[in-house]
Structure formats: C-alpha cells, structure tokens
C-alpha cells in the first residue's frame, strides 16, 4: 500500500508539475503566475517548518545533528544553484561570442531572475540535453524525498508530494523555455520534460527500498527534504516576489502567501484529527 501511494505521489509531483508549468508557460494561466509563486512559497515553508522538521525532531536523534544536516543541506542546494547558474551563464557567454544579440538591460528587476531569463532565452539547442539531464537528477532526488515522507506518515507524504509539485513548477517553466527556443513545437518540448519528470517515480521506488532498509536514517531524509523546500522558497520564490508593486498587488501577494500556509495548516489539522 505504501509503495502504491509513493508511486501515485511521485507521478503526481513529477508529471503534474510539468503539465501545470506548461499551462503557465503557454499562456492558459499566465495571469496567475505571481499568485501561484506566493502560494507555493507559503506552502513550502509551512511544510518544512510545520511538518517535516517536527516529524524529524520527534525522533531519538540529537537535535544538534539534525540542525547540522539542515545547515549542510542549505549550503548544498546553494552550491547546486550556483553551479547551474554558472553553467547557463557559460552557455550564454558563448552564444554572444557567436553573434547573438544580448537582451535589453531593462529586463528583470533582480540579477538572479535576469540571469535566469538570459540563460533560458539564449541557451543553444545543444544544451537542451544538459538541461534535461539535470532536471532528471533533480526529479530523482525529489522522488527519494517524497518516499521518505510517505514512510514516516501517509498524510505527510501527500503533503510532501504537493509541496514538490509546487516547487517544481518554476523549474519546469524554465526548462520548457529552453526547449521551446530550439524545439520545433510545444508538444515535443512538453514530452521531453514530462519524461524527465517521470524520473521522480523511479526515485520514489529507490527511496522506498532505501528508507525501508535504513529506517533509522529517516529523520535525516526529512531534514534534507526540509532544507530543499526552505532553500527553494527563500532563494528562488520569495526573491521573485520582492518587487515594488502597488498596494493592492502587495496585499494580494501576502494573501496568497497566507493561503499557502493556511492550506498546509488545514491539512495538518485533518491529519491530526485522523489520528
């Protein structure tokens, strides 16, 4: 039963996030992008601080050790993000040397998002396989994290799967932009990214075996998952929301952020009620 739940959760997170990203990227829900970023940020932080970390700290593991893993996890994801930015920046640099026209300096309010846009808008087709490979590895890790949560508690696993779905959407939107820059049609780009997203299920199966064999290390897996969600929320999502907006738009951001937190809190209450 647990393995079936893991497979369903990983497929929902892996492939569902791709299709949601496609809906946003291809304009169906484009006007709700900022709202979804706020919702995702709130849900990710609430999942980490109200579910995964409390579950890990209820174990017999020393809190000092868990905090150390949390710190190392945050540093690891920071370095991983820097490596990805360096890779895309390197591709963009070569593209300009070959005669590509640089984007307008006015694009992007922040350096991170500006570099991200440049990387995806100017990445050559030859680099699309590198993007898919990196996305597949990331999805494999997400599958292991989802399996870890399901092994701790079924409801916790469901929440983790939804949180992974939320935080994968912005990444998949970027991947679709890269592939669309050289792909002949949207369907081909969507198919390639969907296959990469499906690797989440493979990670879930491996995670099911790994966590089952190393059950004592479950708290560490949960903390690593928390570090991933916290980093994505604070380093990727929140900076995209830190723009000078009108009062009405700012209030909307705060409301959607609160909705993300409230949604996770509601599910938490249902979970405790079920127990």
Structural class: mainly alpha
**End-to-end separation:** 18 Å
Helical percentage:
over 70%
* Oligomeric description of these chains: single chain
Number of helices: 9
Q: How many domains comprise the coordinates?
A: 1
Which outline best applies?
globular
For the biggest sheet, the summary is: none
Fraction of residues in β-strands: under 5%
Low-pLDDT parts are: 100-127
**Strands, count:** 0
Radius of gyration from the alpha-carbon trace, in angstroms? 19 Å
- The ordered string of helix (H) and strand (E) elements is HHHHHHHHH
Overall pLDDT confidence: 76
Can you tell me about this structure?
With 275 residues, the chain is mainly α. The chain is 83% helix and 0% strand. The longest helix is centred in the first third of the chain and has 35 residues, at 63-97. Helix 2 (33-57) runs antiparallel to helix 6 (154-180), helix 4 (111-122) crosses helix 6 (154-180) and helix 5 (128-152) crosses helix 8 (218-241). The chain has helices spanning 2-25, 33-57, 63-97, 111-122, 128-152, 154-180, 186-213, 218-241, 247-274. The protein has one domain (2-97, 109-274). The chain is built from 9 helices and no strands. Residues 100-127 have low confidence and may be disordered.
